[in-house]
Each structure stands twice: as C-alpha cells, then as structure tokens.
Amino acid sequence: MANSLNPGNSASLTLDGTSGGASALSQFRQETFALTRRLFIQLGRRPSAFVGSVIQSLLWLLLFSALFAQAPKSTFGIEGGYIEFLAAGIIVFAAFGGALNAGVPLIFDREFGFLNRLLVAPLVSRTSIVVASALFIVSTTLVQAAIIGGVSFLMGAHFAGGLEGGLIVALVVTLLVFGIAALSMGLAFVLPGHIEMLAAVFVINLPLIFASTALAPMHFMPLWLQVVASLNPLTYAIEPIRHLFIHAQWSLGDAVLAAPWGTVNLLGCVLVLFGFDVVAFLLVGSVLKKKLS
C-alpha cells in the first residue's frame, strides 16, 4: 500500500494494484481538464482582457474597412469589397494576439507562486500545465474568430467556403495558435517577469501584423517586404482563409499565395503552419522540460 500511495509511482501503479498505463492517461486527462477549467473560471471572473481583445479586433475591422472602402477593387485582387479581403486578416490578427498572450497567465502564476505549487503537486505529467494553457487559448481564439466572422457577415463579407471551408479555417487558426502559444509560453519561462513579457508582446504584435498580408495584398508591397511577409507564418494562415472567404468552389490544390519565390497552394500553407508548430515545439520543448523538471 505504501508504494501505491507514492506520488512518484502514480503513473505505473494504481491504488487497486492494477496496471497504471490506462490510469495514467485518465489522470492526465483529469489534470488537463481541471487546469483548463481553472483558466475558464478566471476568464469568467475577469473577462475584461477577452472582451477588450474582441473589441480591438472589431474596431480594426470597422476602421480599416471604412478607410479603404472607396479603393478600387482591382487594388486587392478580389471582386467583392475590401471587407471581404480584410475579414481573414482580422480573424488571424485576433488569433495571433490571443496566442501571443498565452504566456501571460503562466508568468503571473510563476510570480505569485502558484506554478511552484503545481510543480510539487503529484501530477502524473507536468505537461498537462502546458496542454491546458494551449487548449484554453485555442478555445477562446476560435470563439473570437466566430464573432469576427459573424460581424464581418453583417458588414457584407459573405463566407463562400461552406461547412468544409469552415473546418479548414478552424484547422488553420488552431495550427497558428498552437505554434505562437508555444513560443509565448517559452518566453514566460525565460523572461524574468511580467513587465518584460508584456514589453515583448507589444514589440512583436503589430510589426508581425503589418509584415503580413492582413491589410494589403502581397503584390502591393515593395520587394523586401514581400520577402518578409513570405517568411511570416501569419501570411500562411491569412491567405487560405481569405481564399475560402471569396471562393465557393475550392480545392486543397488551389494556389492561394504568390510569394516572391513561387506560388503556394492551400494544402501547402497548412503544411507550412504544421511545420512551424513542429519547429516551435522543438525550440520551446527543451526550455519547458528544464523549467518543469
């Protein structure tokens, strides 16, 4: 009985002496669910950051769509108005902003000592701390994307991609969020405090948005900015969503991005985002492993 109650053996032996493989997986799910639920409780008690993010995104949608409302349609390479061009960029802007702030709750937990309590708790896997944060960010950003999509529809941007296209949009947003959130959580463990974390968010946020195709098409940029935009993961999320907004007939082989070095189809953009996630997790994995050990 002494061994069965030992937290260090919780992943290999249960209280009734049965094999701990299935039990460990069940405990991991329970831990992840509990930690994710805690984040949603915090959101319910203090929703100002979420509401502020949604309002900011909607203001960008309103102001920029009004600013370029009279621009020639040929400027943006679409048949509809600028709102149809802009909607995809604002959806990705909201998702990117939410993911970039993924490390902020972790760094506050670290400063207030709650993270230390988690690290000494008998968790079956401390990875649940990171997974819970990622699931929370993905859930909230998908809600933001749905709100922005709904408001865009009311403003005249009709999503032509259908149900399957909507699933592709959800996949693209999720892939982008996972990669950015992983990097943000890595920063939360590397930077000394929340002031440095917030400064990093402010420095990174807007430059990456403007160095993408969120607000203007690739051909509208000077060559050096085209190169930068073609290396920006946000561009590979924006262009597939934009293509699905304006094309009722689409396929994974459709060319959606004309980069300086060649064209990229819809499937290629998804694969680039997947590769970005892999690189992000590899870069952050060693940091998290060290800090969570």
Automatic annotation (TrEMBL):
Its main location: membrane. It holds the Pfam family ABC2_membrane. Keywords: Cell membrane, Membrane, Transmembrane, Transmembrane helix, Transport. PROSITE patterns: ABC_TM2 (PS51012). One of its GO terms (cellular component) is ATP-binding cassette (ABC) transporter complex. One of its GO terms (molecular function) is ABC-type transporter activity. It is found in: Cell membrane; Membrane. Residues 48-291 form the ABC transmembrane type-2 domain. The chain crosses the membrane at residues 47-69, 81-108, 129-155, 167-191, 198-220, 264-288. It is a multi-pass membrane protein. It comes from the Bacteria. Belongs to the ABC-2 integral membrane protein family. PANTHER family: TRANSPORT PERMEASE PROTEIN, TRANSPORT PERMEASE YVFS-RELATED. This is Transport permease protein. It comes from Gloeobacter kilaueensis (strain ATCC BAA-2537 / CCAP 1431/1 / ULC 316 / JS1).
